[in-house]
Amino acid sequence: xxxELSPFSLDRMVRAVEKVRERLxxxxxxxRNAGIPYAVAxxxxxxxxxxxxDESATRNTRDVDILIRRGDLExxxxxxxxxxxVYRHSAGMDMFLDGPHAKxxxxxxxxxxxxxxxxxxxxxxxxxxxxxDTGDFQVLSLQALVRIKLTAFRKKDQVHLLDFxxxxxxxxxxxERLPDDLAARLKNLIENPEx
Length: 195
What we know:
- By secondary structure, the chain is an alpha+beta fold.
- The protein contains six helices and seven strands.
- It has helices at 10-33, 42-51, 73-82, 142-152, 155-167, 180-191, and strands at residues 38-41, 64-68, 86-90, 93-97, 107-112, 131-133, 138-140.
- A hairpin with a 2-residue loop joins β3 (86-90) and β4 (93-97).
């Protein structure tokens, strides 16, 4: 299958990053204005924490991941729709597309507090109360975010954990704060960062 390439464009690259930022701020202000407790998770949460130490170590992400309580899904649905988002349930995920013509890549992905993302995972997501106010939005605490990343432990989660290690946000002393299986993953990642 042949794909059509657009011309090279630094402006398009910058705009892609800016669109994620705008979606994040629009989504979080929508939830805040509706009085729905939430916390930003995923790559944006990692970026917020890493940038506190070294902004040049921050990675861009296309995802806007937000943690809410399942009991708030109906209210969140109403708030997001009134803000112009479009609800879709796809591949087991609840998401809000950024407009009627948006792709799944242009969505806010919802995850549920106090629930496992996958049945086989050893621990559930944290509660939204395990968050901190950035001034712009609520973000998961570093402790909660590290647990999520160690639980999911996909390649991108491992990269995010390596970013935390690289800037000194976490180290081997964190193993004492974690359940045994997550501590073993962190220890292995610290000892074998190249895999």
